[in-house]
Specification:
- By secondary structure, the chain is mainly beta.
- It has helices spanning 2-14, 25-36, 41-47; strands at 55-65, 68-78, 89-97, 100-108, 112-119, 125-128, 137-142, 156-157, 168-175, 179-186, 192-202, 205-212, 224-232, 238-244.
- The chain has three helices and 14 strands.
- The strands form four sheets. A four-stranded mixed β-sheet has the order 5-2-1-7, with no helix packed on it. The protein has a four-stranded antiparallel β-sheet with strand order 11-10-13-14, with no helix packed on it. A three-stranded antiparallel β-sheet has the order 4-3-6, with no helix packed on it.
- A hairpin with a 2-residue loop joins strand 1 and strand 2.
- Helix 1 crosses helix 2.
- The longest helix has 13 residues, at 2-14.
- It starts with a helix and ends with a strand.
Length: 246
């Protein structure tokens, strides 16, 4: 938000370590993180040290279900570079129609992603990033839909976001059918750190679990690389890596 941004700028400008002195990008990042209270490593890695900017193509459709309208937005992102292959960040979509003017914020954490949600009125248009916060190119088209349930076709363990994180992160996964799920987090030595889901039944669809590096008594895990593993009966094990920065 604007208030935190300008607070960070003021603190950076008046910091006695840097005022009338020299500073690095890492110094600026440290001030921003101290004001924000969370790691901004993923943002700086993409937008400061990375290359180019996102190019979005999105398709959207609607179908009436009772008194509401279910919306499906399929978002595809390219960058033209491997640094980064895609930009992870929240993206705003503005939906407008008769009696409807609302903005939803969706977390984009993959090159190809589908979102499904409901609104109380029928939208006539959908606009990506209506306030122009993102340096980007974007094109959108409306498509006819027979079904917007958008059930996943495969078992998928998705990348956590934010990554790197401090102190908490979200781990998403997809199930094509109702399944019993186990989700574990391990350290580099292969030692079990935390079990987020222990043989719990989930319906088909998209789900997300929260992982925190802080325990209930306030102690923290050491910084470093951690792995999270999805175990589903009848499907191969899936493992991904995440980074915790204190």
């Amino acid at each position: 938000g604007d208030s935190l941004f300008f607070k960070a700028i003021k603190q950076y400008a008046t910091d006695p370590r840097f005022k009338f002195n020299t500073a690095s990008t890492a110094d600026f990042q440290s001030v921003c993180e101290s004001v924000y209270g969370q790691s901004l490593e993923y943002f700086f890695k993409q937008w400061i040290y990375g290359e180019k900017y996102p190019q979005y193509r999105y398709e959207w459709g609607k179908i009436q279900t009772g008194s509401e309208y279910r919306i499906r937005i399929t978002l595809r992102q390219t960058t033209g570079t491997s640094n980064p292959a895609y930009f992870t960040m929240p993206v705003d979509f503005r939906l407008t129609g008769t009696g409807l003017d609302t903005t939803v914020t969706l977390m984009n954490y993959a090159q190809n992603q589908t979102f499904v949600f409901s609104v109380p009125k029928e939208p006539d248009s959908v606009q990506l990033d209506p306030r122009g916060w993102i340096l980007k190119q974007a094109t959108g088209v409306v498509v006819n839909l027979d079904d917007v349930s958008a059930a996943p076709r495969d078992f998928a363990l998705l990348q956590n976001y934010p990554n790197p994180f401090n102190p908490a992160t979200t781990i998403p996964f997809e199930l094509p059918v109702a399944s019993t799920v186990r989700l574990d987090v391990f350290n580099l030595l292969g030692e079990l750190v935390q079990t987020l889901a222990s043989d719990k039944l989930y319906e088909a669809g998209r789900h997300a679990l929260q992982f925190s590096a802080l325990s209930q008594d306030g102690t923290s895990l050491p910084s470093g690389v951690y792995y999270y593993r999805l175990s589903v009966s009848g499907a191969p094990l899936q493992v991904r890596k995440m980074i915790y920065l204190r």
